[in-house]
Design brief:
- This protein has 331 residues and is of the alpha/beta class.
- It has helices at residues 14-25, 40-50, 63-71, 82-94, 109-121, 136-146, 172-188, 273-277, 282-285, 288-301, 309-329, and strands at residues 5-10, 30-37, 55-57, 75-78, 98-101, 126-128, 153-161, 196-204, 213-220, 225-231, 233-245, 248-253, 257-262, 269-272.
- It has an eight-stranded mixed beta sheet. It has a six-stranded parallel beta sheet with strand order 3-2-1-4-5-6, sandwiched between helices.
- The longest helix is centred in the C-terminal third of the chain and has 21 residues, at 309-329.
């Protein structure tokens, strides 16, 4: 596919406006052909900010279908809560539309597998926004480790300070845990995608009725080991990773700094996430712009990007495995 890629946006909420609209607007080869939104204020504010003429106010449950058909976009971005967006995602795939979604790709493994099935059946290019794979600083650190050999083990820690019960349609695992699992899969996968072949986990409910503490050890078919540590009972928000390869290791916080150590050196070389990205804009240094770029390039080339549904479904499977182990133990 050559020329400009015409994108229809379904949703103009805070997440879409903070990272996806600015990412797409920065690409010369992308046109935001229209916006579908339930709230007229958000619709007009977003359309005016990005100079979008196609404004579609959805007043019925299925109005978006008419707007997609009228616009005939090259790709659809449907950004919103998965319990609301799943029917939209499903319908878009059934129409053969290339599709970009936010994580998670559904709130159950059944939904994820259904979406992956439909994407393959109808030949759709798809992407789940697991943007921590494309944070420029962490990509550079991972590449430096891989120059020495495959990743032997990696660690991903995701902590938040949320002491109250989490009562949304999706649980902590599907809201945040999938990010950590997917980042581990990416770090441990090396140059080729690897599968998780064994999961050992511990879960707890600390002061609330829902699971808010998750740890797991993941063993990959390439021999790598991933260590997952997620807690919503901590004192602050932190997303932190480690990657270890022969004679080298990296430690990093995606939104802060990273350090590369090699050959016994204890000082290390320090990297700044904003400097590596060449921008202080969150959607750039956080990896969102690169994740969007990856999708647009995939639509143009007709090839699947890194976080296509066929890949992301494996992240969902690991998440469901941990939850199933918790249920069987009676945690």
């Amino acid at each position: 596919m050559s020329g400009r890629i015409r994108v229809l946006m379904i949703g103009a909420g805070s997440m879409a406006n903070s990272v996806h609209y600015p990412s797409l607007a920065s690409f010369d080869d992308v046109e935001i052909a229209g916006i579908c939104e339930l709230d007229p204020g958000r619709l007009n504010k977003t359309a005016e900010k990005y100079g979008v003429q196609g404004r579609f106010l959805c007043q019925g449950v299925d109005d978006y279908r008419r707007f997609v058909s009228e616009t005939a976009p090259d790709a659809v971005y449907a950004i919103g809560h998965p319990n609301i967006m799943y029917p939209i995602w499903k319908w878009c795939l059934e129409q053969g539309k290339n599709l970009y979604v936010e994580k998670p790709m559904g709130i159950t493994l059944h939904e994820a597998r259904s979406l992956a099935y439909l994407a393959e059946k109808h030949g759709c290019i798809t992407q789940v926004s697991f943007q921590r794979r494309t944070c420029p600083m962490v990509v550079r650190l991972r590449d430096a480790c891989l120059e020495r050999g495959p990743i032997t083990h990696a660690v991903c820690e995701f902590y938040k300070c949320m002491q109250e019960p989490y009562l949304e349609a999706r649980d902590h695992m599907m809201d945040d845990g999938v990010h950590a699992i997917d980042t581990l899969r990416w770090m441990c996968g090396g140059e080729h995608r690897s599968k998780v072949v064994e999961v050992q986990s511990v879960t707890r409910r600390v002061g609330v009725p829902d699971i808010n503490f998750i740890t797991a050890v993941l063993r990959f078919d390439n021999g790598a080991t991933g260590v997952l540590m997620n807690s919503w009972t901590s004192g602050r928000r932190t997303f932190r990773v480690q990657m270890h390869a022969p004679g080298i290791c990296a430690e990093a916080e995606h939104e802060g700094k990273g350090t590369l150590y090699a050959d016994g050196d204890t000082t290390g070389k320090v990297f700044d996430t904003k400097e590596e990205a060449g921008s202080s804009e969150f959607h750039v240094f956080g990896g969102f712009r690169a994740k969007n770029r990856e999708f647009i390039d995939a639509v143009k080339s007709g090839t699947q990007p890194g976080s296509c549904f066929a890949d992301a479904v494996h992240t969902m499977a690991v998440a469901e495995t941990i939850l199933a182990q918790s249920t069987l133990r009676g945690d």
